[in-house]
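**Polypeptide and fold**
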Amino acid sequence: CPKDCACEFVAGGSVVSCKGLGLTAVPRGLPLDTTYFNMANNSLTKLKLIYFHNLTKLEGLCVSDNDITDITGSFEDFRHLNQVDMLVDLSGNPLNCDCHLKWLRVAADGTELLGNNATCVEPPHLSGKRLLDVPPSDFKCKISARFDEI
């Protein structure tokens, strides 16, 4: 269990709470059988989902009441994850509306949770459009091949 966090084993895995500790990063040493991780009320500014990739049983993640401005990675990689608790207002942020952001558009469907002025700046054909006005099918990535590495 990470330092200063509370860990409790319940049927099927560990519940880890690092709530309200003033943390600025995800702590190391999360049990591999973690099913729920609470990191609410901290000072996170970046959420790198790669930190959770070895948590194959993760079902719930709470990162609400932080100062997150950057999310790297995709929640699609977590096949058991069914609950993510965070408050997000993306108004005024330049968004690259490609395949990497499609998960967010799908999750926000029918809501105004992302802010009324969350706007795409990339790719060029979506520039200026509200994130929630762009159909999920338009969130695409270019396929590029690198032959110099062969």
Remarks:
- The chain has a mean pLDDT of 84.
